[in-house]
Amino acid sequence: MSAPTYARTLAILSFHKIGAPSDHEWDTWFYIPEKVFIDQLEWLRKNDWDVIGIHGFLRGLSDPGSLHERSVLLTFDDGYQSIPTIALPCLQRFGYPAVVFVPTDYIGGTNSFDLDNEPVERICGWDELRCLEAGGVTVQSHGVTHRTFSELSPDDQREEVEHSKSILEQGLYTTVSTFAFPFGDGGAPETVTPMVAKAGYRAAFLYGANSVYLPEHLPVCDAYRLDRVAMGPDTDLGGILGQALVRSMS
Fold first, then answer.
1. pTM score, two decimals?
2. Domain of residue 219, residue span
3. How far apart are CA 16 and CA 86, in angstroms?
């Protein structure tokens, strides 16, 4: 079978925290030092990856021909304050857009949903989220309570999907069109996917598969179960994306 004429490759990278932990005695894989983050952005530039915003990404899901030969979406989960204070200046230095997924119950609070595994960190407040929007980082939904979808009832799942969208759209005067499942758990696709689509989302994201969308995967057959590359301080970005390009040309 011949390769698609549009021969595009699409990657989605998923970050959490940039910089050092607030508790310097407790570090985890989810913290990427600022220098390493800059090196990762520099690698994308040097290797001709086109960093796209959410609108270009959504268009590319159904129209791969609109994408650059190598396109990548940068996403951040949870909305930590290190995004506006550390990540945003780095992104702006390169002229890169990004997306941040925020659980609405924790806006202006802390990551109490994850304290068994991670140090206490502040989550962005509304003013910081507006600053991100103004700076090219689109704010989207990560649910309301940051709970695992497979453990929720259908009514609770619907509340997570619908209420978070409403809260963000009212607070930011913007359109929320994408959803990232907390902990990467999307629940049962046969029930959750129609629910997310009915709520008005155009795409939804999982986490951690480290897979890349090759030409044969585009257009994407299921925009509501999108895989992302989990980014940490030791992620071999060149290996993951470089190998994907080799496969795309074979």
1. 0.95
2. 9-249
3. 12
